[in-house]
Amino acid sequence: MSGQPPTLDPSLCRSRQETLRRYLAAHELDGALFFHPHYVHSLSGYWHGQPLTPTALLVKRDGGAVLVTHHDAPHAPAADEVLAYAPNPLCTFKPNLSGCVAEVLAPVLAGLKTIGTDERTPAAMISGPVCRDLTEDYQYLRRHKDADEVAALEFTIACADLAYAKAKEILEPGITEVEIMAAMLEVATVSAGEFLSGWGQDFQSGAPGGLARPNRPVVAGELIPLDIGVGVRGYRCDLCRTFSVDGHPTDEQAAAHARILEVMKLGETLLRPGQSCREMFEIVHRELEGWNGYGFFHHVGHGIGLDAHEVPRINPAWDDTFAVGDVVAFEPGLYGGELRAGIRLENNYLITESGPRQLSHFPLDLI
Predict the structure, then answer these.
(1) Considering the entire predicted model, what is its pTM?
(2) CB of 82 closer than 8 Å to CB of 88
(3) How would DSSP label each residue in 245-291?
(4) Alpha-carbon distance 204 to 266, whole Å?
(5) Going residue by residue through the chain (367 aa), what tens digit of pLDDT does each one get?
(6) CA 199, 281, 204: angle at the middle one, nearest 5?
(7) What is the rounded distance in angstroms from the CA atom of residue 38 to the CA atom of residue 149?
(8) Angle subtended by helix axes 277-288 and 251-268, to nearest 10
(9) Integer Cα distance of 312 and 329 in angstroms
(10) Please, what are the domains in the chain?
């Protein structure tokens, strides 16, 4: 697999804008300004692949979407106006590129009293309207994934599948964690056909997780949980597979793996509209915490899409409820010394009226 990621449907981008406008009207906001390139893409269809320069999108409550970028003729099928700025005279970047964007926006913002902004918008540089953060509200607002967004996520999952296949191919005692991470990243990038917008995050062997350690070889008898989020044009999957380094899991490791598979089947029955996420956490936690003396110390899962963690959150710190259109990662695990050091399995699902549709299908085997 290699080639072009699926493009967003301009009509669905417009629909997402209208959902946002209803929110703006209900909260007496004159517009919403986003600097986050993932959100800009979702709403306008314009993907800003240059990581060194900012872009922005202003969605006005009364109509119109204004894109700011340094491209003179960007492909932005759901933007009504495009404003350009010059980031790099003679190829040298200016010191405050976000300020350049804000300067271009200033005339458009004139007359607006209050706008919503995301966490990446430099509110101190915005002149004119009062800025009100809507980052968390916007997660709930966009939790329903449209068909084009599900297709985008399935593309990232396909890239991740190929990365896992590469990891299994090269995994053996003595290879370093960095070599495994780099090989997976190369395959994911080639399969995406372009620079990834997201990548990570767990590549440590004999540990519950963590970034690849310099020059640290994997050791026979260890398990390596490979928890990766492949991001393409802002959309990002979140998956985990755990492999036996030498291909010979111990009886204890095999038993823990079988237990997690059982709990995955149980958890899948709870991925339905109206289900309390807090209650699902409690059910899964009871099934795993303390089993054979092992621990389960993290959340049960979370929503995915444009951020690594989105709503709904399968975590007792929140009181979310599953709804149709959610795309969620479900990730039970067990950890303990005899497991060297743990097993985590993670799949991605779309919540539908009739229950979950599994989007990820790479085998869950330890070998």
Answers:
(1) 0.97
(2) no
(3) TTS---HHHHHHHHHHHHHHHHHHTT-STT-BHHHHHHHHHHHHTTG
(4) 28
(5) 656 899 999 999 999 999 999 999 999 999 999 999 999 999 999 999 999 999 999 999 999 999 999 987 899 999 999 999 999 999 999 999 999 999 999 999 999 999 999 999 999 999 999 999 999 999 999 999 999 999 999 999 999 999 999 999 999 999 999 999 999 999 999 999 999 999 999 999 999 999 999 999 999 999 999 999 999 999 999 999 999 999 999 999 999 999 999 999 999 999 999 999 999 999 999 999 999 999 999 999 999 999 999 999 999 999 999 999 999 999 999 999 899 999 999 999 999 999 999 999 999 999 9
(6) 35
(7) 12
(8) 160
(9) 10
(10) 10-141 (3.40.350.10), 147-358 (3.90.230.10)
> Which residue has tokens 């958890």?
267
Name the residue among 321, 299, 322 with its Cα closest to residue 309.
299
Name residue, tokens 């795993």.
288
